[in-house]
Amino acid sequence: MPRAQxxxxxxxxxxxxxxxxxxxxxxxxxxxxxxxxxxPALEGxxxxxxxxxxxxxxxxxxxxxxxxTGGIGSPQIELAxxxxxxxxxxxxxxxIMDGADIRRGQPTANAKWGNAISVLLGDSMFAxxxxxxxxxxxxxxxxxxxxxxxxxxxxxxxxxxxxFDLSLSVADYFRIIGMKTGALFGxxxxxxxxxxxxxxxxxxxxxxxGLKLGTAYQVYDDCLDIxxxxxxxxxxxxxDLRKGKLTLPILYLLERAGDTxxxxxxxxxxxxxxxxxxxxxxxxxxxxxxxxxxxxxxxxEGASALAPLPANPFxxxxxxxxxxxxxxLCGFL
Length: 333
Prior knowledge:
Layout: H1 3-8, H2 11-17, H3 21-35, H4 40-51, H5 57-68, H6 74-98, E1 102-103, E2 106-107, H7 109-113, H8 115-132, H9 139-161, H10 170-194, H11 200-227, H12 230-233, H13 239-242, H14 248-256, H15 259-271, H16 275-284, H17 287-306, H18 313-330
Antiparallel strand pairs: 1-2
Helix pairs in contact: 2-18, 3-4, 3-6, 5-6, 5-10, 5-18, 6-8, 6-9, 6-10, 9-10, 10-11, 11-17, 11-18, 14-15, 14-16, 14-17, 17-18
């Protein structure tokens, strides 16, 4: 695993990644090989986008789910590559929509080459990933990858539609992040297992685990934007808020506020002035704690979904991921 990816993974999670170090290295090699499948004029763009896409959590989950249900073979490797290409494509498009110049300490694709090339780069990566998905003999696997891709993109569209929307509810928020983040986590674990011929009951349980973990991880990421430090967040704190993204800590703050306070917070959200005051209130008024506890509940539900499955080191590793994210969340308290 390249040093950039290792450093991107929170230290609490790295131990679990040791279980799958060899197949994850194979995934990295396959991702680099995919860049070479594009025209020479595009290869450098694709390689850059894939190298800066981050932690490899989705590939790791596909591999762990395979290991937990019978073994990690070439189908899980291929699935991991496909999911990472899809994820990397979404990040290219996210950065364009957010006007982001930096991701994980490196210039974004749009900062380097402009929006026009970056839009087409993301499109090309989506298309290539879906082309790769036709390699599976079980056409239902291909359909599930396509469905999850549509769900991720739909979640991003809805989130963009609802920026600065003060009527956004907590239920709306969970629906959006379940689509934009939970969907790919869920399909990673679901198909990692399904490719081993698991029963519908096992496949459903392990998919639920992935969905719950992914949703909780997005809540963690949203809390990081409010209450982390700028080095770990990789961006200025409150940047999501300044872009009009109403995340769970903010929604809980609004939900708990009286009329006068809610009007004050709403004015800050809409104007973008005084964001630091709002960020401070999130912790002071218990909204951050409430968001953390909601995410911890999701992690418990995810871990419980694995309980009926036969124990093995990979299944334990999946449970350990829930415990690791839980520790990251508790760091905000």
